[in-house]
Specification:
Largest sheet: 8 strands, mixed
Radius of gyration: 24 Å
CATH topology of the largest domain: Rossmann fold
Number of domains: 2
Shape: globular
Distance between the termini: 65 Å
Strand order of the largest sheet: 3-4-5-2-6-7-1-8
Number of helices: 18
Strand content: 15-25%
Helix content: 25-40%
CATH class of the largest domain: Alpha Beta
CATH superfamily of the largest domain: P-loop containing nucleotide triphosphate hydrolases
């Protein structure tokens, strides 16, 4: 198709035109892996005769990734002028985990996207795309579930497409890439992509990354570390509840992640009911001025701005507030501590503090000593956090950046858990009334 040559980069076109039954692609970030795999699936479905039962299934690392892949597929249906009868997202309830998203073509062909899970994968006999396979939950279990259906001769000759940026050697993607010579292999580093026309300033990108290991693995497709999902969906689901209530007297803890540039700022409030920390509020602040963010935070901690006084009973229930003091958060954390007293703690995100916080959060979910509301956004942020072990044995935690932020809700929850786990008696609520009025009410009347 001429339209493919007009839209695709040469390395993407090479992938789409490769008709091998088994293909595996190791591509740099920002090179359009999902765009290419979505193109192949749509073009194949659109070319089928009327009444055909052609089915492509894409397994993505999580719900957010599955829906993003489907957005690319929908754009391709428009580009190739395919007839689409319907697009649906199926869930058990409004905020439940996505069961599947489905495009149904006019000729009967279908594309189905699902968050990767061994049980859901086992139910399909279809052409299969494993999207970002290196960061799937339980990749070896998924492989054991899907490979028999792909190769069963009674199901017809199904095709398999595997694409990912490398995430260390401790996963099935690395195993297939390094040890299986029967696959058609496509490797695209960021330098390869730029050489073939991708409009990226390599010097600027590398300077922004500012980490040789990240550059080597994420952009030059070298196996550097081992990565795993910190909180699997199953573990998160066991701690979700639609029946979380504040008893009006138990201690309250707050965590705030301060967003940089396009990221959200998020405030998580939780009440400790016995041994269980229960999240009663998640507040998102989008593109809000510094003073306004501080005002919201102090309000959550018990300051009544209309009357310019603390709500003493509630304020004394708030035992500790942990605030991300990294970068621009430093000023907000310092000002909150000055105005609100010793119960406010600034937490600088570094390897040690992130290791402590995310390790503690994992234990809370393992022990089921935390309750969170049923929320797609919170669930996806938690699931996106990855535990990364370098070749030197160092453990770090990271989350991919997307249009919705950088797992900011997960960071705020980790800070809230830290607040609830911090020993020592916080200072009583003793705000500087004049200072607060100066900070917030100057020029507002």
């Amino acid at each position: 198709m001429d339209v493919l040559r007009e839209i695709l980069m040469p390395y993407q076109l090479k992938w789409v035109e490769d008709s091998s039954r088994f293909k595996i692609g190791m591509w740099s970030r920002q090179t359009g892996k999902s765009f290419a795999t979505a193109c192949e699936a749509v073009v194949d479905c659109a070319a089928q005769p009327k009444g055909n039962s052609c089915l492509w299934v894409v397994l993505s690392a999580g719900e957010r990734q599955a829906l993003e892949w489907m957005e690319k597929a929908k754009k391709w249906t428009e580009a190739v002028k395919a007839t689409v009868d319907s697009y649906d997202e199926i869930r058990e309830s409004a905020n439940a985990l996505l069961s599947r998203a489905e495009i149904r073509f006019g000729n009967g062909a279908r594309i189905v996207a699902i968050p990767a899970n061994p049980d859901t994968a086992r139910g399909y006999s279809a052409n299969l795309v494993l999207d970002e396979f290196a960061i799937h939950e339980k990749p070896f279990d998924i492989w054991a579930a899907i490979y028999p259906s792909i190769t069963n001769p009674l199901n017809g000759e199904k095709r398999l497409r595997i694409v990912s940026t490398p995430k260390g050697r401790g996963n099935k993607f690395a195993d297939l890439w390094e040890h299986n010579e029967t696959y058609s292999k496509h490797k695209v580093t960021i330098e390869d992509a730029v050489r073939m026309g991708l409009p990226v300033d390599l010097a600027e990108l590398r300077a922004g990354v500012d980490d040789p290991d990240i550059w080597a693995q994420e952009y030059m497709c070298e196996f550097i570390d081992n990565t795993s999902v910190l909180l699997p969906y199953e573990m998160i689901g066991k701690c979700e509840s639609n029946n979380i209530a504040d008893d009006g007297q138990s201690p309250v803890y707050i965590g705030m992640d301060v967003g940089r540039s396009k990221d959200l700022s998020v405030i998580v409030t939780a009440v400790k009911l016995g041994d269980v920390l229960s999240v009663i509020d998640v507040t998102e602040l989008k593109r809000m001025a510094f003073n306004d963010q501080l005002e919201v935070l102090l309000s959550k901690a018990g300051w009544e701005f209309g009357a310019r006084r603390p709500l003493v009973n509630y304020a004394n229930r708030v035992k500790r507030v942990c605030i991300d003091s990294t970068g621009i958060g430093a000023m907000l954390a310092e000002e909150a501590a000055r105005l609100g007293g010793g119960k406010f703690e600034g937490v600088n995100f570094n390897v040690q503090t992130k290791g402590e916080m995310y390790g503690l959060m994992r234990r809370k979910f393992e022990e089921r000593s935390i309750r969170i509301p049923v929320s797609r956004d919170l669930r996806e942020d938690l699931h996106a956090v990855q535990r990364v072990v370098s070749t030197g044995g160092n453990v770090t935690y990271s989350a991919p950046r997307n249009a919705d932020g950088h797992s900011d809700r997960a960071a705020a929850l980790a800070l809230c858990i830290r607040a609830a786990n911090t020993t020592g008696t916080p200072a009583a609520w003793a705000p500087e009334v004049g200072a607060i009025e100066g900070a917030y009410f100057r020029g507002r009347h």
